[in-house]
Structure formats: C-alpha cells, structure tokens
C-alpha cells in the first residue's frame, strides 16, 4: 500500500488523539524523568511535541521555512494544556480545504525543497504514534494503538531510510526485532526504540 492510498488526515487525527490521551496523564513531578529519547527529559520531549505541532501547522498554512518555526514551543505553567493547544492548532491546519494539494516546508528534514502534503503529514502521523509510546513508557501507562493505526504506521516506518539516522536525527538506528515480534514491537524497533526500555535512555 502506497502512503498516498492512506487516509492520512484521519490517521493523523487519531494518532494525535492517542498521543494526547497519554500526555494528559503526565503529572508535573514526572516532567524531569528520562525518556527513551536520549536527549530529552519528559519536559523536553513534550516541548518538542508542541514545537513540532506548531511547525507542521505553520507549514500546512504555507509557512514553516524557518527553523525557528519548529523550535519555539513553550510549555508555560501547564505542559498538558500547552500540548492540547498545539494539537488543536495542527488539527485545524491539516483539516483545511485543499491542504493535500500543497507542498510542505520541513527544514528539519531537508534544507530547501518542499515535500508533498501526504508524505509530510505521514511524518507527523508516525511521529505521534511512536512518541505516544515514549511518553507512555516514561510514566508507566499503556500504549495501545489499534491495529489499523499500527499497520499504517508500519507502512510509513518501513520507508524511513537508514541514511541520516542516529544521535540528533529524527530517528535512531533500527533495532533488530526478534522473529516473533508483535506488530507494535516491530514498529518501535523500526524507529530505533527498544521495546523493553524502562527508565534508561536507549
């Protein structure tokens, strides 16, 4: 199945809701915890999520060329409320009429040159699904994307190239999954996560 055959807007809305449900369970005293993302505490990860939502929203509306559009997330006094506001912003931007006919600037992925909307939104979609696991693993709550979300995220993750992965990049190197890995675990492994992570950065 090609990415263009997916209802990527609907999948993205659902992945963002999955992520939002997990973020809503975060307590203030958990924000200093380490996460599976080596560079970030939970505070830093949620700030990244807010920044990405704001950046994708700007790009969907015809902006987003400047790196500052992607790095200005501010959690203020309430990380959960900040995430919720950014999620509403990107949901509204992706729901605009004609958005799938636009090109998206993604300066963190490629400096110069835009991406087709469906491909750009698929990046946001898979990021939401896997970051939902990052947050859930950090605070010890379930991560339960449904079968359709998992299958679609696997389709996208399988197309992420090995080149350009590693520290400071969007994704870590792939982690070889066991032969009997579940689809959930295969997805995490494809995106550089260690499914058994429990408090020590991977």
TrEMBL record:
<dbReference type="InterPro" id="IPR034660">
    <property type="entry name" value="DinB/YfiT-like"/>
</dbReference>
<feature type="region of interest" description="Disordered">
    <location>
        <begin position="161"/>
        <end position="184"/>
    </location>
</feature>
<dbReference type="Pfam" id="PF11716">
    <property type="entry name" value="MDMPI_N"/>
</dbReference>
<protein>
    <recommendedName>
        <fullName>Mycothiol-dependent maleylpyruvate isomerase metal-binding domain-containing protein</fullName>
    </recommendedName>
</protein>
<feature type="domain" description="Mycothiol-dependent maleylpyruvate isomerase metal-binding">
    <location>
        <begin position="16"/>
        <end position="136"/>
    </location>
</feature>
<dbReference type="InterPro" id="IPR017520">
    <property type="entry name" value="CHP03086"/>
</dbReference>
<dbReference type="GO" id="GO:0046872">
    <property type="term" value="F:metal ion binding"/>
</dbReference>
<dbReference type="InterPro" id="IPR024344">
    <property type="entry name" value="MDMPI_metal-binding"/>
</dbReference>
<dbReference type="InterPro" id="IPR017517">
    <property type="entry name" value="Maleyloyr_isom"/>
</dbReference>
């Amino acid at each position: 199945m090609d990415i263009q055959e997916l209802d990527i807007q609907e999948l993205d809305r659902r992945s963002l809701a999955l992520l939002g449900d997990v973020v809503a369970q975060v307590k203030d005293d958990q924000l200093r915890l380490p996460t599976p993302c080596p560079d970030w505490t939970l505070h830093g990860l949620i700030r990244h999520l807010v920044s990405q939502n704001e950046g994708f929203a700007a790009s969907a509306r015809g902006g987003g060329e400047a790196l500052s559009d992607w790095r200005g997330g501010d959690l203020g006094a309430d990380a959960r409320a900040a995430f919720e506001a950014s999620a509403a912003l990107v949901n509204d931007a992706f729901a605009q009429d004609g958005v799938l006919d636009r090109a998206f600037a993604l300066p963190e992925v490629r400096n110069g040159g835009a991406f087709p909307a469906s491909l750009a939104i698929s990046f946001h979609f898979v990021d939401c699904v896997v970051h939902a696991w990052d947050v859930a693993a950090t605070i010890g709550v379930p991560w339960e994307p449904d079968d359709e979300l998992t299958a679609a995220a696997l389709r996208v993750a399988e197309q992420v190239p090995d080149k350009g992965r590693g520290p400071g990049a969007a994704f870590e190197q792939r982690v070889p999954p066991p032969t009997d890995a579940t689809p959930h675990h295969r997805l995490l492994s494809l995106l550089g996560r260690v499914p058994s992570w429990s408090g020590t950065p991977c």
